[in-house]
Design goal:
The protein is mainly alpha-helical. It has one domain. It is built from seven helices and no strands. The longest helix has 27 residues. The chain is globular, with a radius of gyration of 18 Å. The N and C termini lie far apart (57 Å).
Length: 228
């Protein structure tokens, strides 16, 4: 099976499916179709279960790696948050999914750290996670009109500090590389233009906060227009 090629045919096809899925979900809400909730719940189940399915398939097909088996990468955490947000509609979960998903998981969708190409199960698992998170983040904030508040920027930034500390300590104790704190991803990514890990965090921290504010701006303008 050929290795995955960034910006190859299968990559663009996956991005196209992602865009179509988001558009369909938005239209179902916009047209007030009664079964749009069923699609939202289906997406939530996929986001909550994808890690277990991927783990079982990796073990069954022989590419299981205990050093990467736990759902501790940021995208794995956001996948769980996104699934819970779709089910509970809690604003804090929506905001975390939006900010972390758009500032982090979207980058993974654009520059995938993926070794196996279509039709390998890991290809489907990777895009089920990353595409699912991005679709969920956009759907909840746009179709549901549950855009983040300015306080959500700071909540997202504070909670990601908790993630950094917990996962960073876990990496030190277990000699793993969750969150890519210790080594860069194998495939090209934004981390290639930053200092070597873990010093890249000194730039990622303010950059992440800046991205949170940038992704908040469209909703700030909408709030201002509504007040006027």
């Amino acid at each position: 099976m050929p290795p995955f090629k960034i910006y190859g045919t299968t990559h663009f096809a996956a991005l196209g499916v992602t865009a179509v899925l988001w558009l369909v979900m938005w239209l179902l809400v916009h047209w007030k179709r009664p079964w749009h909730r069923s699609l939202e719940i289906t997406l939530a189940v996929i986001l909550l279960s994808q890690w277990i399915v991927r783990l079982v398939l990796a073990w069954w097909l022989g590419y299981y790696n205990p050093a990467t088996a736990l759902p501790l990468h940021l995208c794995d955490v956001v996948s769980i948050l996104g699934g819970l947000a779709l089910l509970t509609r809690r604003q804090t979960l929506i905001e975390l999914t939006y900010f972390w998903g758009m500032a982090g998981t979207l980058n993974g969708l654009i520059t995938p750290n993926l070794s196996f190409d279509f039709p390998h199960p890991e290809f489907f698992g990777f895009f089920a996670l990353h595409s699912g998170v991005v679709v969920a983040a956009l759907h909840m904030t746009i179709a549901w009109k549950r855009g983040p508040k300015i306080g959500g920027v700071w909540r997202a930034f504070c909670w990601i500090q908790v993630y950094l500390v917990v996962v960073g300590l876990f990496n030190i104790l277990t000699h793993t590389n969750y969150g890519f704190f210790c080594e860069r991803p194998e495939n090209p990514s934004i981390l290639d233009s930053l200092p070597a890990p873990p010093w890249h965090l000194l730039i990622l921290e303010p950059l992440g906060l800046l991205l949170f504010f940038i992704f908040y701006l469209p909703f700030h303008r909408r709030s201002s227009q509504l007040k006027e």
